[in-house]
Amino acid sequence: MTFGTPHPLHRLMLDDVRGAQKMLSGVARTTALEGSRHLSSLVGAPVLLKCENLQRTGSFKLRGAYVRIAGLRPEEKAAGVVAASAGNHAQGVALASQLLGVRATVFMPVGAPLPKVAATRDYGAEVRLQGHVVDETLAAAQEYARETGAVFIHPFDHPDVIVGQGTVGLEILEQCPEVRTIVVGVGGGGLAAGIGLAVKSVRPDVRIVGVQAEGAAAYPPSLAAGHPVVVRSPVTMADGIKVGRPGDVPFGLVQEYVDEVRTVSEDALSSAVLLCLERAKLVVEPAGASPVAALLSDPGSFRGPVVAVLSGGNVDPLLLQRILRHGMAAAGRYLGLRLRVADRPGALATLLAVLTVADANVVDISHVRTDPLLGLTEVEVELHLETKGPEHCREVEASLREAGYTVLA
After folding, report:
1. Which residue stretches of 179-316 are H helix?
2. Closest Cα partner for 151 from 205, 70, 50, 214?
3. Pick from 124, 157, 152: which is nearest to 140 by CA?
């Protein structure tokens, strides 16, 4: 395969991925494969995490972007490249262009997280903020390409990008030759297609499981229909896999090489991000944590050893704060309740003493004195508590009842 030239799907082969791996030597890191004791105990078999969140630029996207841009003809490189992205692809294209000495222009949505905008600029790309949704940003980038002759670098719908992403699969086989199942997040499908092509060409017995967010799951209906189907207005916190339509090129490869595509809830995604942070000490964005969400949702359905691909770690700190709060709630780590206490000095201190003994941390507290159902000498207290989990929640409620309080909710 000559990189940069369009190729029919049937000509994409293992040798193409191996060629991409040689091209990426010294450019992309061979990311670590870390064991997870907690997930292994849940699944009942070894679970390992492929840490592409620790890749240069914070995601796997550098691999495909570099192979695509490196394969351009000299006149194409001279014209520069253009891309549209809210984050990971933007940074991958920016760094790849910088390493290859190619001028890059990246269109990002208005309101894109400032850390991602700053990182893209730091890698040397010209950033243009245009459009309030990714579709508008994409249209602006494509119009720029038509006007200037710059080469549009698609995030997933090109053979060079797919074989670049497929190098993740080769690394997994080298690092864990006994792997039985690989779980990978799916947006447009470039990563899953590349891993499937690389792995199945060597080990057809390995099961490849794709994962999508429930609110942005275009692949299940597309696979059922036999062609890409559009999901209108996809909604998920996992912006890295928030794609409304599978790519034409990866779709055929996913059909051939991916055994199953599952969906996960937003609660599962939140819990997975929290687990990666707490148990593995890894900062992982929701899209990158989607394989972990699938393992948490149905741990008994995976044959081990299992490799979960953590595809990226670029998460805005404000979003991470909300995700962790949501993840803790989904994991039963918050308890909200109401109870009535006597409206007299010291009553609140007595209540807090009970909570202290129960080892519950008060996050928020409020008083209600105007409810007509309250007695003349009563006040309703609403509490939001931080706990250690569902069992601790039950223990806290039991402690309050034993102390004589009536728990209303």
Report:
1. 190-202, 219-225, 248-257, 266-279, 286-297
2. 70
3. 152
- In contact, 87 and 240? CB cutoff 8 Å: yes
Residues 6+ apart with CB under 8 A from 37: 279
3-class DSSP assignment, residue 128: strand
Does position 1 have pLDDT exceeding 70, yes or no? no
Kindly tell me the burial class for residue 128, based on how many C-beta atoms sit within 10 Å of its own C-beta (0-12, 13-18, 19 or more).
Answer: middle
Range picked from 238-242, 295-299, 365-369 for highest mean pLDDT: 295-299
* Percent share of the chain, pLDDT over 70: 94
- Where do runs of H (alpha helix) occur along 51-158? 61-70, 74-79, 88-100, 114-122, 134-148
Residues 6+ apart with CB under 8 A from 255: 223
Cα gap 270→276, rounded to integer Å: 10
Of 72-86, 151-165, 305-319, 339-353, which range is least confident? 339-353
Q: Is the pLDDT of residue 272 over 70?
A: yes
DSSP, res 104: E
- pLDDT level of residue 346 (50, 70, 90 thresholds): confident
Q: Taking Cα atoms as reference points, which of 407, 319, 346, 403 lies closest to residue 116?
A: 319
pTM of the model: 0.85
| Helix extents (H) in 226-361 | 248-257, 266-279, 286-297, 317-330, 347-357
For residues 351 and 385, what is the distance between their CA atoms, to the nearest angstrom?
13
Judge whether residue 31 has pLDDT over 60: yes
pLDDT above 50 (res 6): no
Strands (E), 155-228: 181-185, 207-213
Neighbours of 34 (CB within 10 A): 15
Query: Which residues are tagged catalytic?
Result: 61, 311
Q: How far apart are CA 89 and CA 243, in angstroms?
A: 13
